[in-house]
Design brief:
single chain; 330 residues; alpha/beta; Rossmann fold; 2 domains; seven-stranded parallel sheet; 12 strands; 14% strand; globular
């Protein structure tokens, strides 16, 4: 046991990744459904060669100090890495891995599911039946908005945004997009996607779906002013990061009929407290950050996270490093 790398796995992940880690390493695996408390996390990583983290685990200078100078790798079980101080990891020459690419289609599936469910009031209809309120067919009952033939505005046209556009094309939707830079024609044309300024996208779209990274520029990107630019029949979908939307402004916009509905996979904070005002609104559909939650995708994520962890503890280059510059320094 002594010559095997010591690793800490901050949550139980699918066996696709857990088994190879357990076989190759002296692995401590946090068994609870909730993440380890901060003090427990810091104690558990002391002396470890590698740590497999989740978005709920803050990886910063305190983390690296607690782990010690022998730490060789942090492998994040996510495509995002908002929880990690990447410059600090790089300064300490610790490679960080993530799980890109594998989430693309599964996340796009969930975004489109939220779009349809919010626009057609699916969750609200389910509650209506379960509450015993369904008495007869009604010509004005739970009227929503058509998805087919409508206009979809995609904010952030990377892998997931483009995958959502492919799904929308099957519904005959007109596709507008906005990104920091316009994409080349070979990307736009197969998707029949039109680049427009953000203000125009918000004004013209029936559905707006957010697929941006969380940066200082995108924090509260959807604030009160931008929500007012949307149609009163508009539906907002967020599967990117919770802080991209100002939740207080969203509550007011939904309550006052500024927009029609919202579908959120991510919130600020996470989890969203049961007492949050958004949860008092039938027009706001919230699910618990499950965009990647298919068995196949979570299994592939586990494989990738394990591959990064094992490569790191062996002193090999990570298959998917976030900070490849660590390999360029002497």
């Amino acid at each position: 046991m002594g010559d095997r790398p010591r690793v800490f796995v901050a949550r139980r992940i699918p066996d696709d990744g857990l088994q190879p880690v357990s076989q190759a390493c002296e692995a401590e695996i946090w068994p609870d459904e909730l993440p380890p408390p901060r003090d427990v996390l810091l104690r558990s990583i002391a002396g470890c060669d590698g740590v497999l983290t989740l978005l709920t685990d803050r990886v910063d200078a305190e983390f690296f100090d607690a782990a010690g100078p022998q730490l060789k790798v942090v492998s994040n079980y996510a495509v995002g890495f908002d929880n990690i101080d990447i410059p600090e990891a790089t300064r300490r020459k610790v490679p960080v891995g993530n799980t890109p690419g594998v989430l693309t289609d599964t996340t796009a599936d969930l975004a489109f599911a939220l779009l349809m469910a919010a626009g057609r009031r699916v969750a609200e209809g389910d509650r209506y039946v379960r509450q015993g309120r369904w008495k007869t067919w009604g010509p004005m009952l739970l009227l929503g908005h058509d998805v087919h033939g409508s206009t979809l505005g995609i904010v952030g046209f990377g892998r997931i945004g483009q995958a959502l556009a492919r799904r929308a094309s099957g519904f005959g939707m007109q596709i507008l997009y906005h990104d920091v830079n316009r994409l080349p024609p070979e990307v736009e044309e197969p998707l029949s996607a039109t680049f427009v300024p953000l203000d125009e996208l918000l004004a013209r779209s029936d559905f707006v779906s957010l697929h941006v990274n969380l940066t200082p520029d995108t924090e509260h990107l959807m604030n009160a002013e931008r929500l007012r630019q949307m149609k009163p029949t508009g539906v907002l979908v967020n599967t990117s990061r919770g802080p991209v939307v100002d939740h207080d402004a969203l509550f007011e916009a939904l309550r006052d009929g500024v927009i029609f509905a919202a579908g959120l996979d991510v919130t600020e904070p996470e989890p969203l407290p049961p007492s949050h005002p958004l949860l008092t609104l039938d027009s706001c559909l919230v699910v618990p950050h499950i965009a990647s939650a298919s068995r196949a995708t979570r299994g592939k994520m586990a494989e990738m996270a394990a591959a990064n962890l094992l490569a790191g503890v062996r002193g090999e280059r990570l298959p998917t490093p976030v900070n490849p510059e660590v390999y360029e320094r002497g």
